[in-house]
Amino acid sequence: MADAVLKNDGDNISMSNENQPIAVRETRALYQYEPLLWEKEQSDHSGTDWTAPDNFKNRTGQKQRETIGLPQVSEPEVMRHFVRLSSWNYSIDNGFFPLGSCTMKHNPRLNEKLARLPGFANIHPLQRAEDVQGALGLMYELQNWIAELTGLPSVCLTPAAGAHGELAGMMTIKRAHDLNNDTARKYVLVPDSAHGTNPATAVMCGYETRTIVTKETGRIPVEAFKEALYKTDPKGADIAGMMVTNPNTCGLFENDICELADLLHEAGGYFYCDGANFNALVGKIRPGDFGVDVMHLNLHKTFSTPHGGGGPGSGPICVADSLAPYVPSPLIVKESDDSYRLEENGERETSLGRLKGYQGQFGMHVRALSYMMSHGSDGLKRVSEDAVLHANYVLACLQDDYHVPYAGPCMHECLLSDKTQKETGVTTMDIAKTLVEHGMHPMTVYFPLVVNGAMLIEPTETESKENIDRFITVMKSIATDARAGDTAKFHDYPISAPRKRLDEVKAAREPKLRWKETA
Ligand SMILES: *Cc1c(COP(=O)(O)O)cnc(C)c1O
User: Fold this and answer.
1) What is the number of the ligand 1 atom nearest to the C-alpha of 166?
2) Mind listing the domains of the chain with CATH numbers?
3) Ligand 1, from 158, 193, 195: best to mutate by most atoms within 8 Å of Cβ?
4) Residue owning the nearest CA to atom 5 of ligand 1
5) Distance of alpha carbon 320 from alpha carbon 313, whole angstroms
6) What percentage of the chain exceeds 70 in pLDDT?
7) pLDDT tens for each residue of 457-490
8) Are 438 and 12 contacting, i.e. CB atoms less than 8 angstroms apart?
9) Which end of the chain is more exposed for a tag (fewer CB within 10 A), N or C?
10) φ and ψ at 85, to 5 degrees?
C-alpha cells in the first residue's frame, strides 16, 4: 500500500492526503477518505466481477453491453460512499453546537418514537377528515398549547420554516391594513441587529424598511425609535408595523418593549415579533403580554424538532385577536367535543388564503406537541431558565478573556467579540476554525452585524456543565496563547478535519459548481 503522509505534530495526528493520487489517499483509523463517485477508477466491470482474461471470447453472440459512463460501483460501494461522507458531517448528535440564534439543542428520541406511530406516520394528506380525527385533534391541541404559551390566541400551523412564518405574519399585517383601507402605510421599522430575514420579508411584502440604530447599547433606544416612527408623519400614520426579535440578536431583552409597543399601537402599526429566540422566554413570560400582535415560532428551535437534514422546519404563527380574521388558512376547526376539520378554502373571507399545500409539516407538529406535553408547564419554564443560566455561565467565565460589547446579564445567548485578540492577529475566523480542530462546532460568527468580529454563543438548555466547561477551557486556551504570542498555528486550523482550512474568499469568488474530469 502506498503511504499517505501521516503528520504528527504533538497532539494532532492528521492525514495529509491532498497531494496524493486518488488511488493512494488512504483511510486510517476513523478517518475514512472518500473521493467523488466519479473520481473512483473507471473500469469495465463492477462489484465482485473481475476483468475478463486476455483472449476471452464471448460465445453467446449477444451484443456486449457498452459502458455509458456511469461510475462502476456496486451496492456495498455506494453504501460506503454515502455513509463515509455522512461521517464527515458534524451534528448535534456528535458534539457541542453553540450556534447563536439557531438553538441547536438535543432532539429528544421520545418525539421520534411518537412521530413513527403508524397512526401518525402512515396517514395521507388527502384522507377524509372523518378518517384522520386523531391527527386533526393533535393539531388542535398544538394550536392550544401555542396560544397558551404565547398569549396569542389564534394560531396557524402551516408555515414551513421561520422565514416562511415571517412571510405569513407580515402578509397578515398587510391584509389587515388593506382590508381596513389603510393603504398609506408603507414603512416597517427594523433594528439594525435584526436577522436578515426580517427586512427581506418586509420588502417582499411591498414595504420599505426604516432602520433603527441600536449599536450603542445593543437595545432599541426609545428616542431613536420615536424618531423613526414620526420621521415622515407626525402621528406615524405611514408606519405599517415593526419587526423586532426579543430577546434580540445581541442576546439582550428589550427592556423598553412595552413602551415601544404602546407607541407603535398608538400610531396604528402592528408589532411583529420574530419568535426564533422563544426558548429564552417560554414558560416564564408571554409575548402577547408585552404587546406583540403576531409572532412566528421555530418548532425546530424552541420545541426541539430537527433542523435541516433531520427533517423539515416548521414555523407556525400566532396572532392577537385584532389580527385573527386575516391569518392564512386552513386553521383546524373544532365542531363538537370530538370532531375536527380543516377550514375549507375561502371559508373565511378575510383570510389572506393559503401559503402552503395541505396542513403544514404534520410530523413536526407531532414532535413539538410531544416535547411540550413531556415537559409540562414546569418543565418548559425550566427550559428557559436553563437556557439563560447556561449562557450567563459562559459569559461570566469568558468575560475576562474576550471583549464583551454589551454588559450582561444576557438571555439565552452571549455575545463576545475578537477585539482583544485582534491586536495579536487572531480573529473571530481563527477562533472558529480552532474550535473545529477541537471537535466542536463554532459559534455564530460575524453576526449580528452591529458588532465587529461578533461571536454569538448559545450553549442551549440541553448541554451539561461538563460539556460547556470543555468549550470554555478551549476558548480560554485560545485567549492565553494569543496573549503569549503563540499565534501562528491559528491560521492553519483545522488541520485534522477532512478539508482542512478552506480558502473562503476563493470559494466565494470562484465557486466550482460542476465536476470536470481532469484526465
Ligand atoms: C433562525 C432564525 C430565523 C429563520 O428561521 P428559519 O427556520 O431558518 O427560516 C429568523 N430569525 C431569527 C432571529 C432566527 O434565529
Assistant:
1) 10
2) 5-52+67-86 (no CATH), 378-508 (3.90.1150.10)
3) 195
4) 162
5) 24
6) 91
7) 999 999 999 999 999 999 999 999 999 999 999 9
8) no
9) C
10) -60, -40
